[in-house]
From TrEMBL:
Protein's UniProt name: Phosphatidylserine decarboxylase proenzyme
Reactions accelerated catalytically: a 1,2-diacyl-sn-glycero-3-phospho-L-serine + H(+) = a 1,2-diacyl-sn-glycero-3-phosphoethanolamine + CO2
Gene giving rise to this polypeptide: psd
Active site: 211 (schiff-base intermediate with substrate)
Catalytic class of the enzyme: lyase
GO cellular component terms, semicolon-separated: plasma membrane
Main location: membrane
Pfam families, alphabetized: PS_Dcarbxylase (PF02666)
Extent of the signal sequence: none
Protein's membrane topology: Peripheral membrane protein
Cofactor binding note of this UniProt entry: Binds 1 pyruvoyl group covalently per subunit.
Length: 252
């Protein structure tokens, strides 16, 4: 079992929990610095009608790139949400074409049989740092250029700019997830490469300004979340490996 560095907390009350301001990811600091600098200049010139919107923009940028700590479940049977957001689709579909066949490197292939795909839509208000759903080794990272359709649409999985990441556990279980750029999102920023060893919940990348992440579960595994549910990256259990059951939810 991989354990991420940090304080250990459990369901018996061990550890110490306290609210803290979330960190700002370095990827966003430069944008916030630019907006803040222009804001200061316009304020110095007494252009208040420009300075105030720039001040708000600076705060919005800081909020978008926030990187809060997460308490990551360490049960090896659990598949953890790689993204914050809304479960917008749960479907039985074949894995991405790029991952169906072996590529000659020894990396696992997912085959063409349908599996459960969970789509998580991230609005501009969600945290956009993506995390590893399981512990293991990155076997494939495949970037594909494409369109910038609304990420909430089903066809975005095949037509939008996207990046597939395939992680294989030491026991051979492989899970793929796809970072998909959306209508507003225009850049996928990876933090990992093929061959990297990941702990569950470890940060793997981000997508700027609204997007979607698709998770492809292994055959014989159903979603443990329901359509319309809000999930939290690194914390929400999406599925338990080998478990198949109907779970119903009521919107109220």
């Amino acid at each position: 079992m991989h354990v991420m560095p940090g304080e250990l907390l459990d369901n018996k009350g061990r550890g110490e929990a306290a609210w803290r301001w979330p960190a700002i990811h370095p990827e966003g600091r430069k944008f916030a610095l630019i907006a803040a600098a222009v804001c200061v200049v316009t304020a110095f010139l007494a252009w208040e009608t420009v300075a105030w919107p720039l001040a708000v923009l600076t705060l919005c940028i800081l909020a978008f790139f926030r990187d809060p700590e997460r308490v990551v479940p360490q049960d090896p049977a659990c598949v953890i949400a790689p993204a914050d957001g809304l479960v917008s689709l749960i479907q039985q579909v074949p894995p991405p074409r790029e991952l169906q066949l072996a590529d000659g490197t020894g990396a696992p292939a997912l085959g063409s049989e349908p599996v459960t795909r969970i789509s998580i839509f991230m609005s501009v208000f969600d945290v956009h740092i993506n995390r590893a759903p399981i512990s293991g080794t990155i076997r494939r990272v495949i970037y594909l250029p494409g369109k910038f359709l609304n990420a909430d649409l089903d066809k975005a999985s095949e037509e939008n700019e996207r990046q597939h990441i395939l992680i294989e556990r030491s026991d051979g279980v492989a899970i793929a997830f796809t970072q998909i750029a959306g209508l507003v999102a225009r850049r996928i920023v990876p933090f990992v490469k093929t061959g990297d060893t990941m702990a569950v919940g470890q940060r793997v990348g981000l997508i700027r300004f609204g997007s979607r992440v698709d998770v492809y579960l292994p055959q014989g595994t159903d979603a443990k979340v329901v359509l319309g549910q809000k999930v939290v990256a690194g914390e929400t259990v999406l599925a338990e490996l080998g478990k198949q059951q109907l779970i119903e939810g009521i919107a109220q």
